[in-house]
Amino acid sequence: MMHFTAVNYERSIDFLVNEGGGVSSHYLIPMLNDESYPKSHIEVLQLVDEKERAWHAGQSYWQGRSSLNDSSIGIEIVNIPECIESDVPAGFIKPKDMCIFPEFEHKQIELLIALSKDILARNPDITPTAVVGHSDIAPSRKNDPGPRFPWQKLYQAGIGAWYDNDTVAEYWQLFNHQSPSTGLLQEALNIYGYAIDKTGVLDRQTLDVLGAFQMHFIPWQVTYQADTKTAATIFALLEKYFEPQLSALMTQYQSESAIIDNFTPLTSQLNMLFLASAQGTQHLYNGNRASFLAIANKGTLTIESTNVISADIFINNQKLNLGNVFTQNPAKPQSLSIAKRTQNRINSLRVENIRASINNTPAEIAISIPYPTINTLAMLNSMRPKVDFSKLDQFIQNDISKGFPGASIVVVHKGNIIKQQAYGYALKYDEQQRAVNAPAPMTTSTMFDLASNTKVFATTLAVMKLVDEGKLSLTTPIAHYLAEYQGGGRDTRTIADLLSHTSGYNSEVQFFKNNSPFGDLFFSQDKVLTSEFLLNQVPFSNARRSTQNYSDTNFMILGLLVERITHMPLDQYVETYIYAPLGLSNTLFVPLSKGKQAYQFAATELQGNTRGGRVTFDNIRSGVIQGQVHDEKAHYSMQGVAGHAGLFSTAQDLAVLAQLLLNGGGYGNVHLFSQYTINRFVHPEFVRDSMGLGWRLSSPETRWHFGSYASSSAYGHTGWTGTATVIDPELDLAIIYLSNKKHSPLSEQGGRLQFSGDQYPSARYGNIMNLVYEAVLAQTAVK
């Protein structure tokens, strides 16, 4: 194990020999250009016998071993870098000190090579990858022997490990097409020897390890960041020294790349196999019947068959005309329309009289039916009676004429979009609170900052999927998944406590400013630092878990939990595994960094987060916010991706997600979770009436959100920026109402600062929901 002393020869001897301060080393190599060195030539000094423990490693880990003092030989080399402590403002992760590392003397390296060869000859069990630096085995504490240490020269002398340039080039070309995930890179570094947990995110431990690795193997590029060159280098080293482990890692990489490039899970809601006996008489058992969801006058059924000459298939007791489906390419999937037979919600399927074409040979029919998908307004029959939403239109338009900025609404009833309309303006005011000369109209494709609707349409959906897959248990303590979530009662908190807001956290911690109620104790504008605060420092406001206290902190922790379990950033996980399979290209985090333009978004606040200069903190935004998440904790402290806020979407995209939930967890050929899982989240077994697990529930206390007509089975959420969603399974109804009510002038009323947009009737969600329900119920009564 290689070290530099960071002090001259005299001080090195004091530290390692004379002072008895608990530090020692097996060998010391002096530096000739050192006034404190008394001799005219340098020679290797042995300070501790190799058979004895020397205290040079400290808290350490390498290749499965920890506390390496008792299993390593330490070599200290006199070398004195000049380091300056980083002048980084509070609230950010402090980077490593800026150091000027001097070259090692040529004679020092000559002596080191001779000494190392001698040690290796006497200890043949020390492999090339077990020749390391102090920073390799303690990356969070140490930076020696530094980037000037000639590892490649030692390798050329037969000491230690190095990579082949051609192999690095091959992996670099591959990774330029698709970079390995952070989790995969963490796993690769761990295989090589580093102490690193697979979290899937660039946390502090990962940045430290990346810096140590780069100082050892890419000393001309020490950035402490993951890039394709670093990834290519570690994989090249694994190919050379850990080929068996690399094989499994590359299989995982190829699988991840294929999923990310083209992730389209095909899982219809119904996939059944119907059999007949060899004598041609069908077995009489319940397997020849099934139910499925559908939208009236819509739907398809796919058939594959083996050794079948004929059969009878019934939808809702009506026999299908199968034509020559069993005689023309029977093994090829054939799609049949069942639109003339389907009804809304529950439908029946029955298969009878399967006859084999070859006796004494099994005959079978495989049938699949996809989940319902939404009928858009354009798809509906023009002769279909239309729901009268004129009162709703007049209500919103009246507010628009008086200054309310804008809104977009989609209403889905029985699988049909029966209302889709945009009102007012996406951008109406400038940062001086003046109406602009050419306001940008709101459109049905305008994207909105969903604010706290992120909690349900990103984080809760992700948790539901993980629960359904058996990767997460609602009643398991959080510390089971996040090992650092310890102390102060944290060991008793469960996933359900976070989802139901019964964990005991205060409503929020304003990490983004250093004059919050906590002072600068939790000040952070750095996601890595904020994550550390969340997991082991933010205190509970009360210890009573039966008390419900709505808190953003719960969902910030849940976002980190999803990242830890999936080994992916939250945005990458939900965008890859939930939104992309559903074709939702306008539902995403940090959209401006992913190709979207500011004009595509409804504006939120006019003056950044300053409230017209009445609020101030470090790095505060000014000007109209458009396409950036408004929420300060998400924007400043989590870099735009958080479990409680940060998601953007359109009313149309959210309608698809609502229909997915009404369908029982699937949409088209995509299955995300089961109806059983949905029921667990919206029928609270852990908490009181108004809050399920993630979802807010319809109750007398939540009429301000759901209105007066919502059934007791309805659920949804709201967002501070002006967004509200209602999903009502009893009526097969979903309402998506997105407004930009905060995009409005500020005023003081009763000593309180208020947005004028909040004062309009259209800003009160219960009003909107009541008008929608009245229109839908009136049309239903007519029928």
UniProtKB/TrEMBL annotation:
GO terms, biological process: peptidoglycan catabolic process
Highest rank taxon of the organism: Bacteria
Keywords: Hydrolase
Span of the signal peptide: none
Record domain N-acetylmuramoyl-L-alanine amidase: where: 1-146
Any one Gene Ontology molecular-function term assigned to this protein's record: N-acetylmuramoyl-L-alanine amidase activity
Annotated Gene3D superfamilies: DD-peptidase/beta-lactamase superfamily (3.40.710.10), Peptidoglycan recognition protein-like (3.40.80.10), PGBD-like superfamily/PGBD (1.10.101.10)
Any matching Pfam family: Amidase_2
Stated name of the protein: N-acetylmuramoyl-L-alanine amidase domain-containing protein
Source organism of the structure: Glaciecola punicea ACAM 611
